[in-house]
Write a structure and sequence with these properties.
Structural class: alpha+beta
CATH class: Alpha Beta
CATH architecture: Alpha-Beta Complex
Order of helices and strands: EEHHHEEEEEHHHEEEE
CATH topology: Ribosomal Protein L22, Chain A
Helix content: 25-40%
């Protein structure tokens, strides 16, 4: 069972009254049968699954299996998707969730408030993509770090903005123009900061936590994960 970890998230070392946030990651080594045997799906979920093939199909299943584990429910809570493809619990409106996948590793977040999560396995192409999501101030911020740290931080900014995008849930956000992160100290492979979404008349600050985690030795590599909720 390649559950990498589950974590109760407390921003700045302490949770706000009534705040409940859980995040977990899973590295897929199973075949489809492992997940399907105890993962009942609605007809809409089955139709959604049928859109995918290969590893993407396994990521779909593993993410929902992991989310089921985070709920602690005896019977799985089915998911729907809204008009913007954001997942939600069909019969538990007080719960919120977010899902992510990257190269055979999945992440899931469960919260009692709006939330977003993202994971990204470290990939060599990230420096070529950075100009698409780093604004001028963020690109300048990276210059204080070593080349290796800059490489990690590019993944941090990518996952952070992906998690903001998911928390916002309405799509049509420009990664450079509408989303930004306040400066932070990247030390011991984790950090917290405030992220912002500013679009037209919409202004919202988000608590953000991100961390670098090594994959198991037999697979090598590492990934960055980020979680966020509105402040």
């Amino acid at each position: 069972m390649p559950l990498l970890f589950t974590r109760h998230i407390a921003f700045n070392g302490s949770a706000r009254p009534g705040q409940a946030l859980r995040f977990g990651t899973w590295q897929i080594t199973e075949d489809e049968t492992y997940f399907r045997q105890d993962l009942p799906l609605t007809s809409d979920e089955a139709a959604d699954l049928d859109r995918y093939k290969g590893i993407r199909r396994l990521e779909w299943l593993a993410g929902r299996w992991l989310l089921h584990l985070l709920t602690g429910a005896n019977v799985r809570l089915p998911l729907g998707k809204n008009a913007f493809a954001k997942p939600f619990f069909l019969h538990r409106p007080e719960l919120h969730c977010s899902l992510s996948h990257s190269h055979g590793t999945v992440g899931a977040m469960l919260a009692n408030q709006i939330c977003g999560c993202d994971i990204q396995v470290l990939v060599s192409k990230m420096p070529r993509l950075a100009g698409k999501f780093l604004n001028t101030d963020e690109a300048a911020f990276l210059q204080q770090y070593s080349p290796k740290e800059q490489f990690d931080l590019m993944h941090v900014f990518w996952t952070a903005k992906e998690s903001l995008y998911k928390a916002y849930g309405l799509k049509e956000l420009d990664f450079r123009g509408h989303m930004s992160l306040e400066p932070f100290e990247w030390k011991n492979y984790y950090a917290e900061t405030t992220g912002w979404i500013k679009k037209d008349d919409f202004r919202q600050a988000f608590q953000m936590y991100f961390e670098k985690t090594d994959l198991p030795e037999n697979s090598g590599g590492a990934f960055i994960w980020t979680v966020c909720t509105p402040q």
